[in-house]
Amino acid sequence: MMSSLQYVPIRHENEESLMIDEIIEKAEKGQPVDINEIYELMSITNTDDLEKLYSAASRVRDKTFGKNIFTYGFVYFSTYCKNNCTFCYFRNTNGIDRYRKSVEEIVEHCGNLQDAGINLADLTMGEDPLMYANNNEQLLKIVSAVRDEIGINIMVSPGAMQENMFAPLRDAGADWFACYQETYNRPLFESRRINQSFDDRKNQKIWARQNGILAEDGMMIGIGESVMDRAQTIQEMVNLNCEQIRAMTFVPQCGTPMEKDPQRDSTEELKAIAVMRLLKHDAMIPCTLDVEGVAGLKTRINAGASVITSIVPPKKHFAGVAQPEMDIDNGNRSVEHVFEVLEETGHHRAPTSEFRKLVADRKSKLPYKN
Ligand code: SF4
Question: Is 224 within a domain?
Answer without folding.
Answer: yes
